[in-house]
Structure formats: C-alpha cells, structure tokens
Amino acid sequence: MSALKIKKGSSSHSAYDLRDPNVQTVERHTLAVIVANEAGVLARVIGLFSGRGYNIESLTVAEVDHEGHRSRITVVTTGTPSVIEQIKAQLGRIVPVHEVHDLTTEGPAVERELALFKVSGKGERRVEALRLADIFRANVVDSTLESFVFEVTGTSEKIDAFADLMRPLGLDEMARTGIAALSRGKSGL
To answer: Where does 93-177 have alpha helices with state H?
Structure first.
C-alpha cells in the first residue's frame, strides 16, 4: 500500500513533516459494499463520493445474489485514516446499503483487474508484442494481419506495466474493468 504524508489543514506535501503529530498518512483502501440491487443505488453511492470530494480510483459493480437481489460494489479510494472512516460510516447510512467492508484493514485480500489491449503493428513490432504478451501470460483474444487484442488479468501494477511496454509497439486502445477483490481465507462477506 502506498502512502503519502500530509499535514492536517495544509495542502503542502512534505516528507519533512514526519515527526509532526498532526501529519496523517494518505492511504489506498479497497471497500466492498453490499447493496440492494435496485435502480438508483449506484448513483447514491457515487453521489456520496462526489458530493464530499472523495476520489474514486476504481469502481466495479455486479449482482452477486440473484435471489436476494444484492449487488457488490468494489470501490478503491484514497484518503487519510479519518477520511476513510468517514467514507465507511457515510456509506453505511445509505438505506439500500447492507454491508460495508474495508478489505484493506480486515485482513489479506486478493485484487485483480482485467484489461483488453488493441495493439497494431507489422513485422518485428508484431513479433515483439507477441513475445511480451507471452511473458505477461496475456491471451490473444482476437487477431488480424495488422493487429492483436490481448487480454491481461492481474494486479493493477501488472496491467500498467503491460500498457507501458505495448505503447511503443503500437498500442491503439485499452479497456480496463477496474479492481475486483475478495478477502483471503475461509471467511467472507
């Protein structure tokens, strides 16, 4: 987890404030929110973030319980510990929200993201793209004489690294799903 030190009430970011007791760490947290699967719920959750100026780095939503009509929203956000606590408390007060879990603090979790990359090229660039795709265990899901579509699954860092390597080889387009995450071990939501 990456962290950045900031002084309360200050917009300056300085590593020299490390001994100041008013310094809080900006942390990245992955939240799993179980909600009623009904119209307007996602808008209300997103409205909470935008209305208070909280940033969303990643957002995924899907129905996880068809019979119980429940969906899971996975939100990756950043903030100081007090801001993260505010976000969790405010999410918990939204009526169609059933559960809010902070996967970052509740124990080990597994995070993955899926991305599709369209890479165009001929000759040596095409061969190099295939070689790198093999190293990253990317699947070729579409191929023409002039382009490939690769599917890559892994951490966000892996997706970023693959994109960085494909850019000079002819990366035309990229689509990312956002992070899906589950806690490790027997316990679950």
So the answer is: 124-135, 156-166
